[in-house]
Amino acid sequence: MSPAGRIVLRRLEPSAAEGEITTGVAIESPHAPRRRLWYRVRLPEGWRLTDASDPFVLVPLYDAMRRRLPIHVEGDVSPSLLANLEEFQRFWARWYPGRFTPVEIVPEHEREQPPGAAGALTAFSGGVDSCFTAFRHATGGAGRRSQTSLTAVMAHGFDVPIEKTAEFDAAADGADAILATLGIPLVQVATNVRHVEHAWDDLVGPALASCLHLLRPNARAGLIPASYPYSRLPLWGSHPVSDRLLSSATFPIEHDGGAYSRDDKIEVIADWPAALAGLRVCWEKPLHGRNCGSCVKCVRTILAFRALGLGLPECFDADVTDDQIRALGRLDRHGRESLRILLDSVERTASSGSWVRAVRSVYYRNVLRDLAHVLISAGAARRGPPARRRPGCAGRRRARSRPPSRRPA
């Protein structure tokens, strides 16, 4: 039976098959079917998964905050993580008032976990942000914060849907080839987090952190590559404030690279030939590990390299044309922000040409479309809902206004 008035996370017995370990929790909540949140990992020799329930709290927390239900967790949860998650929830509740409400997390046991082995884990997708984080840490470019003993963690079920095995295998092979040039090993994690929580824009940071916490015994820190620079932070699930609140005392999570613009990152990885050959930025139309060259992420990356005078990276089969730029059509907020960042780069580098005009046209067309939508919505809100009249009431009013009929006696 579903628990009354609370969400319960029940630990699943870990299972091993074909060299992979599957673990997770069953999620039981009122008025909802029982669901499983699972993670499947092929561990390197000598590695192990955490015994704690720390990884499994982060993803179901969003549903709990929306439904205002406390979470009861089987197993151990680090008290330092629980303290941070209290502030994490306050952050989200302040960011989205009315949508999220802080809830209580009640574990079966509160127990701090021992420190892991030396080194750090970094989330890795093969894109500009994760390549930048891997390269600058492996080469000591992060200064005193450098984590030179790195292991990359790539998740299947995030940008590549869990059902698309061939596409992910190709992407992972490409990532492995890039990282091998720096001596960084790659660990693959498969998970169904996006089947459990569908609001990916909110979930991205905690989803990455959950995979890192799962491997916590094998490292002493986790890195989440920054998606946006500090100067342009949108409402997005990976943020320099909230990512750090996914830490425990013995496993800090760092939001890495927020002090660098996309130009800065590209200029750094331009000195890494393997990254230029294997960079993977395409999420919308993945072609077995290759970039499609026509979606907004591909177009903005090609043009960012062009604006910096770096030419076409080897990871793209063909350059982008003005017609392809104009064909981008309607963009979501991340697509618009990526073109705004590209235009900042254009202004900084004094780039010019027909392609710049095409980018500006697409960007401002989307801005004006969104502004028109806001104005129309605001006008409708001011007018209020149309007055509703009961069917036939006018006829009845007319009938009542007639003089009484005079019948002959």
Can you put this structure into words, describing what you see?
The protein folds into two domains: 7-256, no CATH class; 281-379, no CATH class. Helices cover 39% and strands 15% of the residues. The chain has 14 helices and eleven strands. It has helices at 54-57, 61-67, 79-95, 128-138, 165-180, 193-196, 200-214, 262-269, 273-278, 296-307, 322-326, 333-349, 354-383, 393-401; strands spanning 7-11, 15-17, 20-28, 35-41, 71-77, 105-110, 120-123, 150-156, 186-191, 222-225, 253-256. Strands 1, 2, 3, 4, 5, 6, 7, 8, 9, 10 and 11 form an eleven-stranded mixed sheet that branches. Helix 4 links the parallel strand 7 (120-123) and strand 8. Helix 4 (128-138) packs across helix 8 (262-269) and helix 12 (333-349) packs across helix 13.
Number of strands: 11
| Structure annotation, total helices | 14
Give the count of structural domains: 2
Work out the radius of gyration. 26 Å
What general outline do the C-alpha atoms trace?
globular
Helix content: 25-40%
Question: What average pLDDT do the residues reach?
Answer: 91
Distance between the termini: 75 Å
Please trace the helix and strand order, writing H or E for each element.
EEEEHHEHEEHEHEHHEEHHHHHHH
| Secondary-structure-derived class | alpha/beta
Low-pLDDT regions:
393-409
Work out the strand percent.
Answer: 15-25%
Question: The biggest beta sheet, please?
Answer: 11 strands, mixed
